[in-house]
UniProtKB/TrEMBL annotation, chain A:
<dbReference type="Pfam" id="PF04099">
    <property type="entry name" value="Sybindin"/>
</dbReference>
<dbReference type="GO" id="GO:0006888">
    <property type="term" value="P:endoplasmic reticulum to Golgi vesicle-mediated transport"/>
</dbReference>
<dbReference type="GO" id="GO:0005794">
    <property type="term" value="C:Golgi apparatus"/>
</dbReference>
<comment type="subunit">
    <text>Part of the multisubunit transport protein particle (TRAPP) complex.</text>
</comment>
<dbReference type="GO" id="GO:0030008">
    <property type="term" value="C:TRAPP complex"/>
</dbReference>
<dbReference type="GO" id="GO:0005783">
    <property type="term" value="C:endoplasmic reticulum"/>
</dbReference>
<dbReference type="InterPro" id="IPR011012">
    <property type="entry name" value="Longin-like_dom_sf"/>
</dbReference>
<comment type="similarity">
    <text>Belongs to the TRAPP small subunits family. TRAPPC4 subfamily.</text>
</comment>
<keyword id="KW-0333">Golgi apparatus</keyword>
TrEMBL record, chain B:
<protein>
    <recommendedName>
        <fullName>Trafficking protein particle complex subunit</fullName>
    </recommendedName>
</protein>
<dbReference type="InterPro" id="IPR007233">
    <property type="entry name" value="TRAPPC"/>
</dbReference>
<keyword id="KW-0256">Endoplasmic reticulum</keyword>
<comment type="subunit">
    <text>Part of the multisubunit transport protein particle (TRAPP) complex.</text>
</comment>
<keyword id="KW-0931">ER-Golgi transport</keyword>
<keyword id="KW-0813">Transport</keyword>
<comment type="similarity">
    <text>Belongs to the TRAPP small subunits family. BET5 subfamily.</text>
</comment>
<keyword id="KW-0333">Golgi apparatus</keyword>
<dbReference type="Pfam" id="PF04099">
    <property type="entry name" value="Sybindin"/>
</dbReference>
């Protein structure tokens, strides 16, 4: 049960955070896939891809909302995990809480810019380590 | 629980078969017309498979060309085997073995539609009500 990587994407599709730090331009296409998927959806009110299951990994997506049930802010949290991992939506929710505490409340952080907050890094690291320990 | 629509694509990416049972959000609200909808759907899956190959933490080759796309309700379980059976027992049986079928060309076959409906109902993916709505 391992967590492979975490990406945060801003509303214009730019990568603003990635762990463990491998960068690949293709990863940005996740944003447009989202938009096309919601356009092609046979049901109204679709907000995009929530979970992508592949043979070797699962990609979970969490979209930040303004208030509970409010409009989407466009910030997306992508988590690439082992196909057998469980409780990922809860983990993503916790990561979002860390984001709001250590990134959004940081007075030196400008919205939509690359996240460089030590406290956020540390706490995400801690959370993921605790999760992997609990799971095994 | 039920299905919304099904797409069958050939190797060149043209949609050889499309059927919808229930589509609350019309094509006009999405891609515009049916042809564009099908093209975009193929493009979406083509990009998704490339995307998966780049995202893959284990550096596998990624998944192969998808030819059958079935849109279902969110509550539906993992349908990998159902789709495989759909291909083996229904598509091969009623389309490929049909002497009038030209490989890679669009087809219309009542037998195929009936078998498809029966198969999906058998797997609990189609409700009588939906077929009625589609017929109207």
């Amino acid at each position: 049960m391992s967590i492979y990587s975490l990406y945060v994407i801003n509303k214009s599709g730019g990568l603003i955070y990635n762990r463990p730090g491998m960068l690949n331009d293709r990863r940005r296409s996740g944003h447009s896939l989202h938009a096309i998927a919601s356009q092609l959806s046979p049901v109204p009110g679709c907000t995009g891809i929530e979970l992508l299951e592949a043979d070797t990994f699962n990609l979970h997506c969490f979209q930040a909302r303004a208030g509970s049930g409010g409009t989407l802010t466009g910030t997306k949290f992508l988590l690439v995990v082992d196909p057998h991992a469980s409780f990922i939506p809860t983990l993503l929710q916790r990561i979002y809480e860390l984001y709001s505490d250590y990134v959004l409340k940081n007075p030196f952080y400008e919205t939509e810019q690359v996240i460089k907050c030590e406290l956020f890094d540390e706490n995400v690291e801690l959370l993921i380590r605790r999760y992997t320990q609990q799971a095994t | 629980m039920g299905c919304f629509n099904i797409y069958v694509f050939n190797r060149q990416g043209t949609c050889v078969y499309y059927h919808e049972w229930f589509r609350p959000k019309s094509v006009r609200q999405g891609a515009g017309n049916l042809q564009d909808d099908q093209k975009q759907m193929f493009g979406l899956f083509w990009t998704l498979s490339n995307f998966c190959a780049t995202m893959d933490p284990k550096e596998n080759v990624g998944f192969g060309r998808r030819e059958l796309i079935l849109n279902t309700h969110r509550e539906a379980p993992d349908l990998t085997e159902v789709l495989q059976a759909l291909y083996d027992d229904i598509f091969v049986e009623y389309v490929v073995k049909n002497p009038l079928y030209v490989p890679g060309q669009p087809f219309q076959s009542d037998q195929f539609v009936n078998a498809l409906n029966a198969f999906l109902r058998q797997n609990g993916l189609l409700q009588q009500q939906q077929i009625m709505q589609a017929a109207v």
